Structure formats: C-alpha cells, structure tokens
C-alpha cells in the first residue's frame, strides 16, 4: 500500500481539488482508500469529557491507578 498525503482547501463543495503533482503520483486505475482529516479546535474538550465519564464509573479499588497517570 502506498500513502500519498497533501493539504487542500475545502470550499463547501461536494468535491475538493487534488494538486496536480499529487495526482501524477496516483495509479491510473485500481482502488484507493480516502481518509479526510480536518482541523477541529474543540476535539480536546470532547476527549477530556469522555475520559472523565469513563473514570467516573471506576471501582474504588481502581483509584490507585489514577495516581500513576
């Protein structure tokens, strides 16, 4: 499997541009897996809230492990 990474601007359309130099690296046929990652500022807040909820249900005997984190 070959990975090709690039950054592009999203403009609200149903498609986004692939830079020409990147497109030239892609095979002419076959299948490709596409993963789109976007910048999200509030992602850390969500993670902290989910982790807090996860720890909330810990048994008392597991409390010792929290001191190790």
Give a concise summary:
By secondary structure, the chain is an all-alpha fold.
How are the secondary structure elements laid out?
Blueprint: H1 20-23, H2 43-56
Describe the fold and architecture.
The chain is mainly alpha-helical. It has one domain. It contains two helices and no strands. It has helices spanning 20-23, 43-56. The longest helix has 14 residues, at 43-56. It is elongated, with a radius of gyration of 21 Å. The relative contact order is 0.08. The mean pLDDT is 82.
The proportion of residues forming helix, as a percent range, comes to 25-40%
Helix-strand pattern: HH
The total count of helices amounts to 2
**How many distinct folded domains?**
1
Shape: elongated
Question: Any low-confidence stretches, pLDDT <50, length ≥5?
Answer: none
Biggest sheet descriptor: none
Mean pLDDT: 82
Which radius of gyration do the C-alpha atoms yield?
21 Å
Based on helices, strands and strand pairing, what is the structural class? mainly alpha
Please tally the β strands and state the result.
Answer: 0
The end-to-end distance, rounded to whole angstroms, is 37 Å
Proportion in β-strands:
under 5%
